[in-house]
Amino acid sequence: MTMHRNGTLSTEASDFLLNCFVRFPSWQHWLSLPLSLLFLLAVGANTTLLITIWLEASLHQPLYYLLSLLSLLDIVLCLTVIPKVLAIFWFDLRPISFPACFLQMYIMNCFLAMESCTFMVMAYDRYVAICHPLRYPSIITDHFVVKATMFILTRNVLMTLPIPILSAQLRYCGRNVIENCICANMSVSRLSCDDVTINRLYQFAGGWTLLGSDLILIFLSYTLILRAVLRLKAEGAVAKALSTCGSHFILILFFSTILLVFVLTHVAKKKVSPDVPVLLNVLHHVIPAALNPIVYGVRTQEIKQGIQRLLKKGC
After folding, report:
1. Are strands 2-3 and 177-178 parallel, antiparallel or unpaired?
2. Domain range list for the chain
3. Which of 3, 167, 238, 291 is the most exposed place for a label (fewest CB within 10 A)?
4. Three-class secondary structure of residue 1 per DSSP
5. Where are the extended beta strands (E) located within 32-102?
């Protein structure tokens, strides 16, 4: 029991309950199958891509190292979110402990920010490849990948750390039901008895600083790439240049489109069902993860050949 300043008593919660589509139970039934398939596809395809890049010496190049990092981030995000959602759908395992909830919150925020930052570094890689092809081997080196990876880790680990810390320091008394399938920061913080203005401001400022700056730099990179491509006069040069960065552009489109739809739906939440942003939030952790390795596997000849060689060796 906790005594408040106004003299009232309330019972502190020991864990949270994830209220995942309880208003529409049928959603749980028809969502469980496609979500399971997307989860298996995401983990399986990204694992295959990681193994292929690891074992194929011809793929030991900076761009594929960055792609490996992206696959690793996707696997962690899927494993952090989807198994718990499926456990709720199948076995009604809605309780989640405080430490597990805040850990999930941190991993989601941190790894999504790292994924966005990885896209930004890959956009720079494509910019150098198209706009400065002769200097590409001297600029985009293994050492560059190591420094870029350290930057991705340091920036996002430190910048997103205050999010779960601020939420964990709040007092949770009385209400413990999270109106979400996952431990999203504001879904958890609004259950607190304390003022959550700082949490709200940091989530907003941190999100737009990290993701916003990445998207601006990605847009700038592709603007410069498009300008350089339009200046090419050799026959077939434009198509070749665009195909070089086509896969990467499609991946960014998947990532940013779902994120944009989620933000717009959240802003217009009075006009849509409150379960729609929750659904988009869950799908944002699995759809890009499932499509990323497929797009690169289909559109990149080196990866297709590497997978084919591994399959022949296995047979």
Report:
1. unpaired
2. 37-87+105-174+193-314
3. 3
4. coil
5. 95-97
Q: How many whole angstroms separate alpha carbon 186 and alpha carbon 104?
A: 13
Give the predicted TM-score (pTM) of the model.
0.89
Query: For 143-160, how does the pLDDT look when each residue is reduced to its tens digit (9 = 90+)?
Result: 999 999 999 999 999 999
Beta partners for 97? 15
Label residue 263 left, alpha or beta by phi (over 0 means left) and psi (-120 to 50 means alpha): alpha
Q: How many CB atoms lie within 10 A of CB 291?
A: 20
Inter-residue long-range contacts of 165-169, CB under 8 Å, 24+ positions, other chains counted: 166/198, 166/199, 166/202, 167/102, 167/105, 167/192, 167/199, 168/98, 168/102
CA 187 – CA 183 distance, rounded (Å) = 7
pLDDT single digits (tens) 40-70: 999 999 999 999 999 998 899 999 999 999 9
DSSP of 92-115, one letter per residue? ---EEEHHHHHHHHHHHHHHHHHH
Here the tokens at position 163 are 């999010």
Calculated CA dihedral for residues 121, 110, 274, 88, nearest 10 degrees = 120
**CA 70 – CA 122 distance, rounded (Å):** 10
Query: For 37-87+105-174+193-314, CATH number?
Result: 1.20.1070.10
